[in-house]
Amino acid sequence: MTGGNQRLDALAATVEQLRSDLALAQESTDARALIGIATGILVERGHGGPTEAAQHLESLAEASRVPLLELAADVVNAASGDAVTDVLPPAAVNADPHGAPGAVLRLRAAEAGSLSSDPQSAAEALLDQALAPLGADSLALWAAGQDGALVLAGHAGFPRGEAERWRYVPPGVGTLAQQVLTERKPRWYGSLPAGALGIGQRRRGGARAVLPAESAGRILGVLEVCWPHPQPPLTPATTRQLDALADLCAHTLPGADLGGHHTDSHPDDAMNALGDLADGLLDPALVLRPLIDAQDAVSDFRIAHTNAHFTDLAGRPRSTVTGMSLLEAYPLTAREGGLYEHVQRVHATGEPFRSERMALGALVDDVPLSTVASVGMARFGDSVLLTWRVESETVRLAELLQHAQRLGRIGGFEESVVSRQVIWNSQLFSLFGLPPSSSPVPLERLHRHAHPDDSVAIGRFLRTLLHHRHSASTSFRLQRADGVVRHIRIVAEPVTGPAGQLVAVRGAYQDVSSQHWTEVALAATRDRLADSEQQSAERNRLALQLQQAIMPPSPPAVDTAGLRVAVRYRPAEEGHLVGGDWYDAVVLPSNKVMLAVGDVAGHGIKAATGMVVLRNALRGLAATGAGPAQLLGWLNSVAHHLTDQVTATAVCGIYDPGTRQLRWARAGHPPPVLVRGGEATALPLPGGILLGAMPEAPYEEHLVTLEADDRLLMYTDGLIERRDLSVQQSLEHLLSIAQEPAPELDKYLDRLLTHSRSDTDDDTCLIGVHLR
Questions:
Q1: Of 140, 82, 118, 123, nearest to 254 (Cα)?
Q2: Is the CB of residue 770 less than 8 Å from the CB of residue 567?
Q3: Coil, strand or helix: which one is 752?
Q4: Closest C-alpha to 628, from 716, 703, 711
Q5: What gap in Å lies between CA 363 and CA 359, rounded to an integer?
């Protein structure tokens, strides 16, 4: 047992030694590559051949007492002038106080490790040389595929099983790397958000940087760097360093060799093949080649080829447009129409683009010209193929017709009598609930798809159309295979030949189900409305009969003890506005005269029945000999407790012929009007709220002594109320009419009703009292 353990320990030691030797060999390889680059720079600067330059580099390192590898990094950094040079300020180039290589040395060593064009080796070199000193513990290098797919080209720091699970990411998964590929800009996460998708997603809480790997304006992949713990926001220096690493990764990914700076050279074989492809298209096509600026970015696209079907928007010949840049040829389209942005995106991501309607613009003699076209573009190698098709008037009219048929749920058909061929448009298959691949239904078999009760109507339609050769139409219920029943209207006309023979039938089906059910609903609504109107008219008739039975328009005048009382009642002109206005003038057992008017709130049968209850209750209570204030108090209790929430206003007066005194009280009602000596005045109002508002309410009494030839008016608000005037203004108008002289009381009251300016079409009660 002990011997077995010893053998296992020896085997583990051997594996560890081999791993160390392999890492050392890799570092030696990277170091030799970096020293080789520096030696090549010295050869270019005239320091002899490779041997002399290498010796010169070693002598410089000895003289400056700087490690040879760090000196090689300084030489490469000073001569390159690339993105790595600008990663950190010059102070950052030197080694740190602990003897570790500086940041730029790490980047140059990582760059040397990526020269093998092996993404896996490059990923391992980047993690060991450049990212581990920054605290990162793993990275993934993704190569961009078609339509947003990703392939794991290299990785470091992840378990083998994790890498295998994420070897390929289909389009539309929505990983962090795919989001960056779509947005074309880097993302930084101080801690991995919940629900984030991507490699290493089980490492919750760690930081992550996701950057596009771009070369010559093309995004060839994505670099994803992971930290084991949350991190603060990146410093500008670290951000620049990560950008430089992403650019280094782009050179190791597939397609990097297609992004060279050869846009101004003669067309190569790939270019010729793409031109042949464009010439084979029936739509206008452009082949666009990127123009790369000094910062290795796409500044524009050159129109390298136009096919034979190309038609310039501004009317220029092909030879003029070919060779121009896209921004030069179409500045309006490139900047305002969004076309240039889409070309950039397709070239960068490789994801095709298509739009059915895009505005294209051009300048014709400095006048902007705009048109609408369907546009498509795709990347082929380092070029972009752009095609468009300008909408013609015929196409627009056809689309408009199809759109109108869809909105109107109309489908057209044509049926040949000679060949028996039936042609349907696409909308008609949808109406019948049939797939587009099914056979159209000929007219002779239409009854098989209709309700049996509609067969007679369909037969009459076919006889008119086919035998009498006249245009015809009918409606039927379509029974579809999916169980849905639709109401269809068919309209058709015959097509005859030169000799008058029937050649074909043309027509259209329309789904009128919505209209049918709307008509059914309207008919039911009309029936219910008619019933409601009849019931309402009946209630109004009953209310009017009840009101007229109790409140005749001109009852007999009361004439007792020198007091003449006349009454006028004017009902509402509209029957449905029958209200609860009431009056009463009666001689009590004590020979006193009770005068009262009131107005129950509302209209209709409820107001009329409420009026009957209050009027009869007041007449019965008045027989007790109580005063008007007490009577209104009792009447308030009746309205509140013994009716169905009836509220009303009222004026009640008790006239004593012996003393000629009138004691009166009111419950929220307009004041009586006293006419004396040719002058009309409104009596001061005693306190008192409307009837039925409260269970118990106090009411005040006022006393007025009548003189010979005085006239007293008691009325409801239907006499004076107007929508455009206040109550006070309406009352002043009544006073101006009331003070005019009149010989007889009856004619006097008729004149007041005639000159009344009320516009509310409400009931009106008017009591006139004349003391002789």
A1: 118
A2: no
A3: helix
A4: 703
A5: 14
Report which of 272, 275, 280, 352 is spatially closest to residue 309, judged by C-alpha positions.
280
- List, for residues 232-270, the tens digit of each pLDDT value: 998 888 888 888 888 878 878 876 554 444 444 444 566
Dig out the tokens for 607 from the structure. 């107001």
Domain boundaries, the chain: 26-116, 269-391, 396-511, 550-771
Find residue 705's DSSP bridge partners.
Answer: 661
CB 104 within 8 A of CB 88: yes
Domain 269-391 has CATH 1.10.10.60: no
Tokens of 614: 């209050």
Cα–Cα separations (whole angstroms), residue 54 to 48, 76, 371, 734: 9, 14, 65, 124
Whether 475 and 488 have beta carbons less than 8 Å apart is answered as: yes
Q: What is the CATH number of domain 396-511?
A: 3.30.450.20
pLDDT digits (tens, 9 = 90+) for 86-145: 444 443 333 343 333 455 555 555 555 555 557 887 888 888 878 888 889 999 999 887
Q: CB 212: neighbour CB atoms within 10 A?
A: 27
Write the burial class of residue 391 (CB in 10 Å: 0-12 exposed, 13-18 middle, 19+ buried): middle
Q: What is the CATH topology of the domain spanning 550-771?
A: Phosphatase 2c; domain 1 (3.60.40)
Taking phi first (over 0 means left), then psi (-120 to 50 degrees means alpha), and beta for anything else, what does residue 711 get? beta
Q: Are 269-391 and 396-511 in the same CATH fold?
A: yes
Q: Would you say 485 and 453 are in contact if contact means Cβ atoms under 8 Å apart?
A: no
Residues 170 and 310: their CA atoms lie apart, in Å, by 36
DSSP β-ladder status, 579-587 and 593-603: antiparallel
Q: Give every CB contact of residue 154 below 8 A, 6+ residues apart in sequence.
A: 118, 119, 120, 121, 122, 123, 124, 140, 141, 252
Q: Locate tokens 């468009």: which residue? A: 388
CA 762, CA 579: separation in Å to the nearest integer? Answer: 7
